[in-house]
Amino acid sequence: MSVHLRPETEARLAALAAASGLSMDDYLAVLVEKESSATSREQPAGQPRRHIWDSIAEIMRDVPAADLAALPKDGLSQIDHYVYGVPKRTP
User: Fold this and answer.
1) CA-CA distance, 74 to 81, in Å (whole number)?
2) CB neighbour burial string for 3-20, b if at least 16 within 10 angstroms, e if fewer
C-alpha cells in the first residue's frame, strides 16, 4: 500500500520516527496502535453508553458538602456574571 504525503509531513514523520529510534513503518504502526487503543477505550464494544449525569455524579461524589453549599444559588441564571464578570442580570 502506498500513502502519498506532503514532503513536509513526510519529513516530520521521519524526524519523529528517528527520535523514537524506529523506522518510519514501525513508527506509523505504533501510531495506529495507539489510535485504535484510544478508540476502543472510548466505547467498549457491547457496553451501553453512560449518561452524562452518571459521569457528573461520579466526579461530584468526592466534593465536600461544605464546598457545594458555598456555590452561588443563582449560578445557573447568572453564569455570565460568574464566568466572565459581566454585571448580573436583573430578574
Assistant:
1) 10
2) eeeeeeeeeeeeeebeee
pTM across the whole model: 0.42
Task: Provide the CB-side half-sphere exposure for 37 (13 A, CA).
Answer: 6
Question: What is the C-alpha to C-alpha distance for residues 78 and 89, in angstroms, rounded to an integer?
Answer: 7
Render pLDDT for 10-65 as a digit per residue (tens, 0 to 9). 999 999 999 999 999 999 999 999 888 776 556 666 778 889 999 999 999 999 99
Q: Of 72, 69, 68, which Cα lies nearest the Cα of 82?
A: 72
20 contact partners, CB below 8 Å, separation of at least 6? 27, 30
